[in-house]
Amino acid sequence: MKYSHLVFPMFACAFILSPTFGHAEPGGCLKGAMAGGVAGHFVGSGHAKGGAAAGCAAGMVRRHNARKAAAAQEEHTAQPSSPDADTGSSSSPHETASPPR
Questions:
Q1: If you write DSSP's letter for every residue of 28-91 in order, what string do you get?
Q2: Where is 15: in which H helix or E strand?
Q3: Any idea what the Cα angle at residue 64 is, between residues 53 and 22, rounded to 5°?
Q4: Of 1, 6, 65, 100, which sees the most CB atoms within 10 A?
Q5: What are 4-39's pLDDT values in tens digits?
Q6: Which residues in 32-58 are b (16+ Cβ under 10 Å) and which e?
Q7: Mean of the per-residue pLDDT values for the chain?
Q8: How many Å apart are CA 50 and CA 59, to the nearest integer?
Q9: Nearest CA among 45, 51, 37 for reference residue 7
Q10: How far apart are the first and last CA of the chain?
């Protein structure tokens, strides 16, 4: 246990540098677990594991919601508009023709 005094600084550095690794995607189990573990550590003894578990769950929910919103946005932008939507010509059966002159 000669390096036990370095455990917290290493986790703090990993937490600070974690957004720089990989692609940017919100939430996630590891990011949430790190934040929850640190928060639980500062709450009191024995709460770090519970905080990490709660942070992991919250991170997974956050990532799920972000992926769902991104998929909905992608679906919305991928739908092509109809070519005759705004041409001004309408062939409605309820339109009356103007009387002949």
A1: -HHHHHHHHHHHHHHH-TT-HHHHHHHHHHHHHHHHHHHHHHHHHHHHHHHSPPPTTTTSS---
A2: helix 7-17
A3: 80
A4: 65
A5: 777 888 778 777 766 655 566 777 888 888 889 888
A6: bbbbbbbebbeeeeebbeebbbbbbeb
A7: 77
A8: 14
A9: 37
A10: 103
**pTM beyond 0.70:** no
Structure tokens at 99: 């009387």
Inter-residue contact 7 to 13 (CB < 8 Å): no
**Do the beta carbons of residue 56 and residue 29 sit within 8 Å?**
yes
pLDDT at 34: 87
Amino acid at 83: P
Provide the token pair at 8.
């917290």
- pLDDT tens profile 58-95: 999 999 998 899 889 888 887 766 555 555 555 555 55
